[in-house]
Write a structure and sequence with these properties.
Layout: E1 3-7, E2 11-12, E3 18-25, E4 35-41, E5 48-54, E6 59-61, E7 69-74, E8 79-84, E9 93-100, E10 105-108, E11 112-116
Parallel strand pairs: 2-11
Antiparallel strand pairs: 1-3, 3-8, 4-5, 4-9, 5-6, 7-8, 9-10, 9-11
């Protein structure tokens, strides 16, 4: 049974860098053809795909976020991470990690609320 668990700060100040981690259990993040995604949902809005890291370490980003989002992984800990630089209040959202597809997700974390506020 694959489980995903997001973790990170609940509150970040504007202009700071947001760092989130998703710990994957029950399977390896390097399993062939698996993709691990970051998705967010701002209040009152729909889901927004942010980017993904593939089983081979390749990364993919939404064009709207590519300039200030980074996704990386730690295979020894079986987790993936998201860094979002220069955050603004518009980055306030519930952040999810999901997999194992690039556009279809059997596995979701429970989500973590991030608020950007001074």
């Amino acid at each position: 049974q694959v489980q995903l668990q997001e973790s990170g700060p609940g509150l970040v100040k504007p202009s700071q860098t947001l760092s989130l981690t998703c710990t994957v259990s029950g399977d390896s993040i390097t399993t062939s053809y698996y993709y691990w995604n970051w998705i967010r949902q701002p209040p009152g809005k729909g889901l927004e795909w942010m980017g993904a890291i593939a089983y081979d370490g390749s990364t993919y980003y939404s064009p709207s976020l590519k300039s200030h989002a980074s996704i990386f992984r730690d295979t020894s800990k079986n987790h993936i991470s998201l860094q979002l630089s220069s955050v603004t209040p518009e980055d306030t959202a519930v952040y999810y990690c999901a997999g194992p597809g690039i556009d279809s997700y059997d596995y979701w974390g429970q989500g973590t609320q991030v608020t950007v506020s001074s």
